[in-house]
Specification:
The complex is a heterodimer of chains A (299) and B (140). Chain A is an alpha+beta fold and 299 residues long. Chain A has nine helices and nine strands. In chain A, α1 packs parallel to α5, α2 packs across α3 and α3 packs across α4. Chain A starts with 11 loop residues before the first helix and ends in a 13-residue tail after the last strand. Chain B has 140 residues and is an all-alpha fold. Helix content of chain B is 64%, strand content 0%. Chain B contains six helices and no strands. Chain B is globular, with a radius of gyration of 14 Å. The chains are: A alpha+beta (299), B mainly alpha (140). At the A-B interface, loops of A face α3 and α5 of B.
Amino acid sequence: MNDMLQGWVDDPAKVEEIMNDLPFPVFQDVWQPIKGTGKNKKTLLYDYIRKASGGKFPKRKQTVGDCVAQGAAYAVDAVKSVDIILNKEFEEWVAETATEDIYAGSRVQIGNGRLRGDGSIGAWAARYVNEYGAVPRGKYGNIDLTTYSGSKARSWGRKGVGVPKSLLPIVKKHPVLTVSKVTTYEEVRDLISNGYAVTIASSQGFSSRRDSEGFASPKGSWAHQMSILAVDDEYKRPGVLVQNSWGKWNGGPKRHDQPDGSFWVDAEEIEKRILKKGDSWAFSGYEGFKPRELNTRII
Amino acid sequence: MNNKLVLITVLVVGVVCYKNDTIATPQVVADDLKTSNVSQVFSNIQSKEDKLTIYKLFAGSAEYLKNCKSLQATQQFDPILGRVQSSYAWDREKYPEFTDAVSEYLVSVGYNVPKPLTTDEQRKDFANIFQSLAEATKNE
């Protein structure tokens, strides 16, 4: 796979910097109340996204090395949908989460322009959506985020540029309320089954061919961030569903009507090969959008 | 699709009720002054067929909303109504003055402000808006 379509930067020291600023940097610290609640359960966050979006599941296909924002945006989509469908918060979907601002915000507003070339760090994106926020695709004054633009993400992500100042006050109204680092399958299992979303980053690649049970085996090396949009701990082969941002890049059998571009990963593989790398993050609670006024010209 | 089918079924029932009622004395909605302008403008519409469709849409909506528990918020209903109107080949704003009158009524009862539909009371209140419109356009 083209390196351009990856973009995660492995930098444990910078992750540590971010963790020093977070109220609950490690999910393990607050895990106790929900520990074990996801055991033998199946939770499909992508179904919540489908329901909340009226069937418009985001089909992300990155064109530059902004995978960190793509993975984080899927997690925001999931949290937003859980708020609407599961928690019945009086909010509306509006549109899939924009990625350009998350990418630029992570690199510039949080990372202070210290990275050269494409790419970002999972912790920076988590910090950005928590300290600033995330917005759905749409027009915000003269800023048009209606359609994904890799070049805009790259341009905004340059040192000294960042998220436009006029957009930041809008973004700040819509933060992800908590972000915490996760490091084990059991944490992820319990989090997902309680409506959290998880975005993951590592250097681990996977096969583009799913096996007969929808799983992809570890293969190759990707410096890449993605998102976990389901967990199935009741199946004979426990695992998580990983959603990639390369469009319809893989093939093979599916389970539970999983979205295109996704694949199941065995529990022990996700923990050993990805979560233990230390840059995977759980998101929960999104300050969403209250429904706008209704059209009264209905007849 | 299920929502649409249920609403269409209710609309068909509405037609039968409407036809049975056409021989009755015209009903004046004296108990709801807010809809009086709707009734008045409705009476200016010449096409009996269109009048029947309008009544069907309002009566069917009221009946559907009384029984439907799948909607979580009021803003979810308009797309359903829109699809049913399309299936009836009904164009919104066909009678602009009537659209104005209905719109004024809807604003006066707070329809324009999105509300949750999570309790029976909320569902009943929302259904009553359309019930009033149905009564205002019945047997004119």
